[in-house]
Specification:
5 copies of one chain form a homopentamer.
Chain A: H1 3-8, H2 16-26, E1 37-41, H3 44-48, H4 50-54, H5 65-73, E2 77-80, H6 82-92, E3 98-101, E4 103-104, E5 117-118, H7 122-127, E6 132-137, H8 144-160, E7 165-169, H9 184-196, E8 201-204, H10 228-238, E9 245-249, H11 256-268, E10 273-275, H12 278-281, H13 285-299
Parallel strand pairs in A: 1-2, 1-10, 2-3, 3-6, 6-7, 7-8, 8-9, 9-10
Antiparallel strand pairs in A: 4-5
């Protein structure tokens, strides 16, 4: 069985509509057919503000820049909030898989515990020709139950329309320490929760070797975790033994070498790919496209 | 391509109904066909109380005054809450584009963080022959997520009926300082959020050179911001590189010269126009109409 | 044009059903055809408890007492909560216009800020043969946004059934001082808000000369406010320049002479009438009816 | 008990809303309070065409003519199809009870068996401020079951909104002979069916002494039927022993003396009144009003 | 009062939304403000087939031809079925009032009696930015009751969205003779039925002097009918004494002189305008536009 069909065999309860859109995601771009994914996400304008996001490379002020970059670089998909998708859907629907992020949070102050606003719905995703919806949950936040319920409803609604769901699972808020947000036990836990909620694709951050939860510590004694590849492997295992697609982000912008080394570890650990935002679009177009292509070479096994 | 059709080409994902009503807005009044807008908004009776709003020019106690002034002066549209629109819709629907403000907040005390009340719905807008709906969000408020979700739902509902949405995006509340409400980074951010939420027209205040957010400061080092025109240009850039219509208010009443100088800067910076309330209707009819006409001359490039 | 049709011409956006019921209200009772209204309201049993309300005149324990009094005295309408209306609707629908109060609050303790409970719906009003619905808002209360939204929904629903809405607009709660609740600026503001929300008839308390809001003070320098008649005139002006029907209550029970003097001032100031509860039904039947009839003489210009 | 309340006591299962609107019908116009009704119905434009209906008195081409005539003459109500009611409802709702005829049939040929088209709904009646709905059934028609079901649904829906239903019950079609349409047994039967279907007011034609149904003949041996008054009395008896309001039409235009003599017999037989269309509006205004007033004198017992 | 507002005063029961769209229709194109209408309708492709419709002037195969012609000639509106409107709505909504024909019938054989298919809905009209809906009824057809009920429902639904309804009322089928379809009595009757059903604008064919219905003949003895102008005047009278807008078609293509003479008679008789399809679009563009402009000169009184 080819890698894509092998992966899809793990989603046997899904309707052909959801399967078909997952298949489209996995069979698009340079990595088509490999079972690996490099996705371009751009929600930083909403999350961090336009200047913090786009001043480093002012091309990004224009919503047309991102899908053009994604196509040039050969990404599997482009993910963004409603306004950005609306701005380009007429030209890209059917050419480049689009993922509509249905919630977003800004950085203009409280509430103390993070909670994203609903900024679109499944009907928007259908109207705009999207291939999937995206949603962020903050495991650890005091508001997480509300988010889980919102996500649960949206997954059900999207499924009825044949749309799979990509979940950004970011531990944050509540009693979590800052280090805890990327602790191995917490990231694995967050990935697992997303899978349990019905996510078809899960996106988490690369975990550190820190163990946050006292009760979890002893259980990690025998889990190999010295290298990022080992930690990635643990997160993949926590994602239904690898039966759910789990991809990793690179976080804040950093040097190209650092990015690529991280990606090699993710690949070595069995990660299904990466979702690379600021590291691609905050570089010049040439550099950004080059970095994305390098990522694809890594995940393509070349 | 004429300026109106050039602007409409950026809304390519929209239905003909929404496009048609945007076209009507852009092709009405003295500025018809220029791609620029001067709108008369009157929600101050609700927001600040009747005497604070209308005592300076008692003609304004009568709801019939405003659409009459708007037509005389050649405005593109008149925006107001339900009661004011109901009071005049029979006579003005089909003559003057009407924008129904669907939420409003009074100034009779708390809650501490601002949140507008829903005071009408999309069905009201259809019943009253309106060309668009209007909605206010307060980025920064603790209640902003709720507002974003309300707006998101209303935009979707209005779109199904062919109605575009004008969003008043006023940073306010939460951890924002008073100066921060008009800081360049915050205003640009507020405009960007409105665009991401699907606003067809965004209304913000003219920004100062202040930068509020610590994380944003370094990104503004190279953004020209000495003149208002430069700052306007940045806000337009933050509004999807000018692909969304962004207009500016003048705020509190001031001298005519100050108003006109501000408008010249807004025009020079590429702003799509102005929404001028108190500066027009708190003057005598002759002076208010004259000031609106002067605004049109500026945006008409004369 | 006769006074009633003159008033109705200001509601030109309304359907014939709403107009017809307003016409019925204005053409009932002794004041029929004058454009003036004297309404008997009895919600004190719910609001203050039965003994506080009815012990002064025990006839009032019987719900049949009120419509009988209203008919005898020649009132335009009788307004009460669901139970009282249900108790007498079979006998009075079609004889005496009934106004169903759709929310009420008791005085059994918190919440700190006032918020009425929904105690009926539009379907009840139709079922019971009512001519209008009634609703109370508390501008100033922390819960006012919720009330405004509830009212907005009810007005829309009632309109579809041809029923107009009477709004009791009582500033209360939040940061308002006790004196502020009847301050001229606050009462005018409360009346204006009710009009903006789509009320067809607004009921407020007679204002004092106190100005509550610091920002409003200077705007009242030139507003005549020495006499109650002058203050009433200002509230009428704030009610869309008199284009919405605004009536006044007498508040707590007091001497007949004081009541009548107040009504003369309300009439002199252009108020559309009065809604007189405790001052009528807490007197003996003969005295109560006599006082109501005196009120009608005043508003009838005799 | 006064006559109106006596009549209403027979509708004890009805909600106050329906009772209230019946009370309004019975307490309007010259016959207010007598328990008798003279209604002006104008559906002939739809049923027979405009020239056949209005050429004899061209005033009738104008929809404003009829309610004006009804008010001048002192009718209890005016009944017409949607277009005619819409044309005048803004001016007459609340002044003159309006009855919206919800089905109508034209005379432009087949189908062979009569069946009226639905031409409005209960929501229209509320929107237009009507006091009742009207509906025609054709007992005898092959399509009668469909009509009965339509009527049954409409009565239920109208009742929920507090609106009573007036049923025109015209035996017609199927195996009925032309004479049979006004046969005593058939008219009585038609009135009874309407009552059984829940009609609040039934309108039939004055019956002849002819007995149509073979099975019914022997049962009419002892029923007095020589005079119209006797036959009317039988139809009233068939209408739940007079516990439902049954009124009679005069049919085709005829001489004033013939009309009045017929009305005297209807009154003598205990009929609740008349619904007089062509005999009133196809005369000059003066003559039509005079005839209507004469009808009121008869039913008023003067 | 200007002619447009004078006409709108006859629709006093309507919401501002419906009034606003009627105002837009009456204030568009060359005849704006005159109270007269020249509409370009193109449903012949559906009704008669494309070659019969467009071979005479092959420009008509392209849906873009018609709105372009309508704008060039200065028509008030363009009316067509769903596909044609969809094809051009993005470019014309907000520039040229569009009327979406919601039913259509082809000429591919039976049923014996004419009945149009529903081919769109009110939501389509909103989505496409239309100013009105259109609907055809065939009074005389055995299926007319079904059509009347469909139309009644659509008018109610469109009204709630602020859209007026244009009704094509074509007597056809059943027992009507071919001559009877344009007989004076039948055309007047068909116009009256459309008005009674709630049509805001009625379109009929110019009537001949033939009288079809035996029962109607005597009523036409005194109706002037020798000239087309006289017959038009009768149809206008049958349309609620001219209180509903009634326009006339020219029917099959004919010589320009014949067309213009007919239009002069329609104008002389008080017709509100014309809806000219084949006579305009089956000519060359220059000739078609010229003929439309001549029609406007006639109705503009020049």
């Amino acid at each position: 069985m080819n890698p894509v069909e092998q992966i899809l065999s793990h989603y046997a309860s899904e309707s052909p509509g959801v399967i078909g859109n997952l298949r489209t995601l996995l069979n698009s771009g340079t990595l088509a057919g490999t079972g690996k994914l490099v996705i371009l996400p751009v929600d930083q304008g909403f999350e961090h503000g336009p200047a913090r996001s786009f001043a480093p490379n002012p091309d990004g002020y224009d919503p047309a820049y991102f899908p053009s970059l994604a196509v040039e670089a050969g990404c599997n998909a482009y993910a963004a909030p409603l306004g950005f998708i609306e701005s380009i859907a007429r030209d890209y629907a059917g050419r480049l898989p689009l993922i509509l992020k249905l919630n977003n949070s800004d950085s203009l102050g409280g509430p103390d515990d993070p909670h994203s606003a609903l900024t679109g719905d499944v009907q928007d995703a259908l109207r705009l020709g999207c291939t999937a919806i995206g949603f962020t949950i903050y495991p650890g936040s005091e508001h997480r139950n509300e988010m889980y319920a919102e996500l649960s409803d949206l997954i059900a609604e999207a499924r009825e329309c044949g749309l799979p769901t990509v979940v950004w699972s970011y531990p944050r808020g509540g009693e979590l320490s800052k280090d805890g947000e990327t602790a191995l036990d917490v990231v694995a836990y967050a990935a697992h929760i997303a899978c349990q909620l019905g996510a078809h694709i899960v996106k988490v951050k690369p975990p550190t070797a820190h163990i946050e939860q006292a009760e979890a510590k002893k259980h990690y004694d025998n889990v190999p975790k010295a290298t990022l590849a080992e930690r990635i492997a643990h997160v993949v295992k926590a994602s239904f033994n690898g039966k759910r697609i789990v991809i990793f982000s690179g976080g804040a912008a950093k040097g190209a070498d650092a990015v690529l080394e991280e990606l090699r570890q993710i690949h070595a650990g069995g990660g299904y790919g990466t979702i690379m935002g600021r590291n691609s679009f905050q570089r010049s177009r040439a550099d950004g496209a080059a970095l994305l292509k390098s990522a694809m070479q890594i995940f393509g096994g070349k």
